[in-house]
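User: Predict the structure for this protein chain, please.
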Amino acid sequence: MAIIQFTVNNVHVQVDITPDIMLSEVLRDILHLTGVKVGCGVGECGACTVLLNGKPVASCITPAMKVDGASIVTIEGVSPEPAELDVIQKAFLVSGAVQCGFCTPGMVLAAKALLDKSPDPDAGTIRKEFAGHLCRCTGYDMIIKAVQTAGDAIRNNKDIQLPEVDHQNSIGQSVIRRDGIQKVKGSFLYGADFYPEDALFAV
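Assistant: Here is the predicted structure, written as C-alpha cells:
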C-alpha cells in the first residue's frame, strides 16, 4: 500500500492505494466522482477522460501512483460553481451534442483542454483532437458545432443562453434534452454508478 496526495477539482485529497490501481478507480470507487465514466477500460473510447495538470488523459490506463502531487479536473469541477454550467457545457446542450450522454463528460473535458490552448479551432483540428473519443449517437457533427460554439463564446467573452421552454405551448420551440443538464454535469447515473449500501463486489 502507498499513500498519494493530489488535488481534485481544487480539493486536496489523500488516499491509500495499491500500486496497480488506476486513476479511474480512485476517482470513481474511492472518491465517488462518478462523472468519470469507464467504457472500454483500455484507453480507446475517451469516456474516462480527465484533465491531469491541464492535459486530457485516459484515467482508466493512468496509474494512480503517477498523479501524486498533481492537479486533476473531472467533469464535476469544470464549472466554477457547482450549481452553474460552464460555457462549454451550455454549448453542448444548445448544439444538440448530448444524447445518451455516456461519452459527454470526456468530450467536455477534451473540449476544455483544446479551447484553453486554441480558442478558435477549425473542424479538422477538432476531429484530430477528438480522435480518441467514441460517440455512438450524434455522428460527431453536433459535437464539432458545440466546440466551435463554445470557442466563439470564449473569444467574445459572452455567455450562452439556454432556451426557456413554455410547456403550455412547446411545439416549434428549440429545447434541450430533459436530462441534458445532468449529463453535461456528469451527475446522470448509469448502472455502474450506483453504490448500494452493503453491496458485495466480485472480481
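The two ends are 19 Å apart (CA to CA).
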